[in-house]
Amino acid sequence: MKFEIPYKAAIFDLDGTLIDSWPSLVATLHAHLPGQTLDLRRLKQELSAGITPMFALAMAQAAISAEQQAHEHAQLLARYLNEFLLDAPLYPGVPELLTQVQAAGARIGICTNRDRASALRLLRHHGLDAAVDALICLGDTAHPKPHPQPLHACLAQLSTSPGETLFVGDSCIDAQCAHAAGVPFAAHLCGYHRHLNELSPAALRFESFTQLARLLGC
């Protein structure tokens, strides 16, 4: 069946949008900080700002001194990347949605504040790399999200304009980036954010990728 959607391209954030990295991060914390009582609800909220701030909060909750935190952070990150990175599942319905977007003739981009090496490992692990037409990662532009520069770079790779592209994300960083770049924003309500009002303004809001497919007319 030939689908039609009202956009020439869809750009997706990675963590909290296509991939649920939370289980792999929790496993890392429990392995590296055994016996510590961590406030997982607060840590998941902090993940909306990124992995580094979330790890910093976890170390503070574990009463690790400021002097030790740089060393502990390096160990946490290494353990996460080496042992637990690929324990992050896709959100249900992601492969089907990407197939439908491609069937509609739209191009697919990824715009993430994750480093390129781990982003590629995750995409390849889940078999999504072949579906991606453009990939912008941390360090590819002078400024990360929420600055509009990464999203503009992704638009350039896709050869699309802001008005004909949808950016799908889950955090205030994504919402601010989309707004600054002039790109319509689709808010994933089951990702990582402190409050739903952080996801405004949003052209679309969805709780599942099946729902997003319906909203797009797939």
Helicity range of the residues?
A: 40-55%
Structural class, judged by helices and strands? alpha/beta
Q: How many discrete structural domains?
A: 2
Total count of helical runs of at least 4 residues: 9
Query: What is the gyration radius calculated from CA atoms?
Result: 17 Å
Given as residue ranges, the uncertain stretches (5+ residues, pLDDT < 50) are none
The portion of residues forming beta strands comes to 5-15%
- Please provide the count of β strands: 6
| CATH fold-level name of the largest domain | Rossmann fold
How far is the first residue's CA from the last residue's CA?
Answer: 10 Å
The chain-level mean pLDDT equals: 95
Order of helices and strands: EHHHHHEHEHEHEEH
CATH class of the largest domain: Alpha Beta
**Can you name the CATH architecture of the largest domain?**
3-Layer(aba) Sandwich
Tell me the layout of helices and strands.
Layout: E1 9-12, H1 22-32, H2 40-46, H3 51-61, H4 66-84, H5 94-103, E2 107-111, H6 116-125, E3 134-136, H7 149-158, E4 165-169, H8 172-181, E5 185-188, E6 204-206, H9 209-216
Parallel strand pairs: 1-2, 1-4, 2-3, 4-5, 5-6
What do you see in this structure?
- This protein is of the alpha/beta class and 218 residues long.
- The chain has 9 helices and 6 strands; from the N terminus they run βαααααβαβαβαββα.
- It is elongated.
- It catalyses: 2-phosphoglycolate + H2O = glycolate + phosphate.
- One of its GO terms (biological process) is DNA repair.
